Amino acid sequence: MTTSTSRPDAPQGIAPAATKSLGDESLAPQKTRIMGRTSYLLAWFGGCVSIGTFTMGSSVVGTLNLIQATVAIAIGCFIIGIALALNGAAGYKYGIPFMVQARSAFGFQGTRLPGLVRAVPAIVWYGFQSWIGAGALNLVSATLFGYDNLIVFFIAFQFVQIGLSVLGFQGIKWLENVGSAFILASLVYMFYSTVARYGDTLSANLVTMEGSWGLPFWGATMLFLGIYSTMMLNVSDYSREHVEGSGPGLLTTLYAMSILPCTLFMGLIGFMVSEATGVADPIRVFANAVDNTPLLMTTLLFIAFAQVTTNVLNNVVPPTYVLMDTFKLSYRKASVVVGLLAFATFPWELVKDESAAGLQVFVQTYSAFLGPIFAVLVVDYYLIRRRTLDLDKLYDPNGPYRGVNLAAFIATAVGVVAAFSFSTISWYASLIPAGLTYLLLMRYWQGCQRFNQ
């Protein structure tokens, strides 16, 4: 295998800029990194307040008790931290985004598979969380001004997010960093309000129930992990923005500690409130849980703001880079297209009480595809490339990585079959079959030997 031990300043046809302005994003190797350790931690913290986590908490009611749910969330976050550090290493070292990283394993044309698999859940969550945020704003308007029109707020809210998303990582950095303190304070208050309002019911039902430490418990860890399995795939899109000098252990800690508080609070709030009320819609939940109007307005504004911070980091960047790579669009044009596509996800259908189980199936299903792709990328970088990439080849569409690497596609298919055979723990079940299949094919199948270069 031919490798390059140094990072070239300008791979073929690529000239990375020495400075970075608002919305100035490209697929070129990142030269200007704008996030230090604190900034990077706060960006992940602000970007992980997912209402999907609230819904996943609702979906395990009746299966786990309070202690089991807490431990399941903590284990899920720890695994997330390790996975993000592993798969983000290539982007962190070489400054390359996910769609470029995937070329060595899947090929230039083959990257459309992992790109599509990553983009679809992001756009669905984008629409879902935008509807939640618009619902919060609509309730504030109805309460304070008597104006109630959810459709208008949804459209306006979505266009505001599109406007913010075109600012790129400079805008993301400041939005996430400034909003983190408000998000943390609001989460603590929401958790306190939930316990104060429903404490007696919760202690009677959630603490005393037996629950399960078996397969349902591990299935729950995967559900909370599954919310972030999308980000595990394209973590290089973010790690390329982090300043150099953080080791794997520190990066794992940064990821896990930024994700744990938000996931723990949101998951347990959804878990407890759904047990007490049977309601899965967070807007209705907090309208009932908070008696004080000013505090309710603050809580609802937090929900709306949290959807913005989560969407612009987690749900805009990945599909935007996919469109940039596939259709050669600029970052700004691609981010606008992604925002418009979110309108077509019918999010109003996903917030119904009966939809919590459906969202659980959705997470399990896309995790069955994301797990194998994650395994292929990790095996490719650590065992095939030995953590050394040749950037000239990664940016050469006529080089050894041209076309499609069938080994990656076959390994992904094997992992998907294994995942659906154990759907409760689909992400876990897919890793070893997919990773081992890819390793063996790359080592011994002559049909993919040019990808070993």
Topology of helices and strands:
Blueprint lengths: L36 H10 L4 H9 L6 H22 L1 H6 L3 H4 L1 H4 L5 H34 L4 H16 L2 H40 L7 H19 L2 H4 L8 H30 L4 H8 L3 H23 L1 H11 L3 H11 L13 H30 L6 H4 L11 H16 L4 H19 L9
Helix pairs in contact: 1-9, 1-12, 2-10, 2-12, 2-17, 3-10, 3-12, 7-8, 7-14, 7-15, 7-17, 8-14, 8-16, 9-12, 9-14, 10-17, 15-16, 17-19, 17-20, 19-20
What does it look like?
This protein is 71% helix and 0% strand. It contains 20 helices and no strands. The longest helix is centred in the middle third of the chain and has 40 residues, at 168-207. α2 packs across α12, α10 (215-233) crosses α17 (355-384) and α17 (355-384) crosses α19 (406-421). By secondary structure, it is mainly alpha-helical. The protein has one domain (37-452): Orthogonal Bundle (Hydantoin permease), CATH 1.10.4160.10. The protein has helices at residues 37-46, 51-59, 66-87, 89-94, 98-101, 103-106, 112-145, 150-165, 168-207, 215-233, 236-239, 248-277, 282-289, 293-315, 317-327, 331-341, 355-384, 391-394, 406-421, 426-444.
Q: What are the key terms here?
A:
453 residues; Hydantoin permease; disordered N terminus
| CATH architectural designation | Orthogonal Bundle
CATH superfamily: Hydantoin permease
Q: What is the count of DSSP helices, taking H or I runs of 4+ residues?
A: 20
State the shape: globular
Helix percent band:
over 70%
Number of domains: 1
* CATH class call: Mainly Alpha
Q: Rounded to an integer, what's the Rg over CA atoms?
A: 22 Å
Helix/strand class: mainly alpha
